[in-house]
Amino acid sequence: MGTRTQSLEHEENSMKRIGIIGSGSIGAAVARLAVAADWEVLIANSRGPASLSGLIEELGPLARAGEVQEAVEFGDIPVLAVPLAAYPKLPQATFTGRTVLSTGNYYPHRDGRIEQLDTLATTTAEYEQALLPEARIVKAFNSILFTHIPNLANSTPRTALPIAGDDDAAKAGVSELVNALGFDTVDAGTLAESWRFEPESGAYTQIYVADLDAFRADYLSDPGAPLPADQLRTLLEKSTRADVAAREF
Question: pTM higher than 0.90 for the full model?
């Protein structure tokens, strides 16, 4: 009985912990959601724990800084919010067998031109999976503006985010995590189908905009508008694939 109780306590504790690799706008936004939901958070970046002192002070006692390997191992599902160029520098072995929530997108001005993405031979998510072959990549939080994340978490009606992955159990785990952070999810299919909510597709960031004209004038000032799951599902079905080779931002 004692062993079973300890096991349940371990499961409960692990469900309330999340490691985040990347302290940019999306990583920090997810960290704020986690703290608001009373989760323990461990954040890591390429510059080391000392560079995170300001963010950790803002987040409060539930958050701390650490190394990348610590963040991967801290909870059940690490959040990976780093540029594509950072993937080869990650501790590959630490990701073995793990479900990973990836928030990344392909931005040529930052990532350089990547031929297999430009030619549509692969999606960004498939490319990430190839870079972390022993992990189970699930895409989420890559189709919503970082400023809309806090505004639309736990909205009424509840806002939905698309997810995609090749492993059903991994997608279920990420869906539970996203739900705990304040959003519904819509299964957009496999990693090969994740183009439906890549940049410039029909289900990218502007679907969460409150006022499109105001957004175009000053995107940071837009408060966002709730997008229920049924509406997101329709947008995903109608989405068209972007001309990635023409992408510049």
Answer: yes
Q: What is the 3-state secondary structure (H, E, C) of the chain?
A: CHHHHHHHHHHHHHHCEEEEECCCHHHHHHHHHHHHCCCEEEEECCCCHHHHHHHHHHHCCCEEECCHHHHHHHCCCCEECCCHHHHHHCCHHHHCCCEEEECCCCCHHHHCCCHHHHCCCCCHHHHHHHHCCCCEEEECCCCCCCCHHHHHCCCCCCCEEEEEECCHHHHHHHHHHHHHCCCEEEECCCHHHHHHHCCCCCCCHHHHCCCHHHHHHCHHHCCCCCCCHHHHHHHHHHCCCCCHHHCCC
- Give per-10-residue mean pLDDT for the chain (249 aa): 42 72 97 97 96 97 97 97 95 96 96 97 98 98 98 98 98 98 98 98 97 93 97 98 91
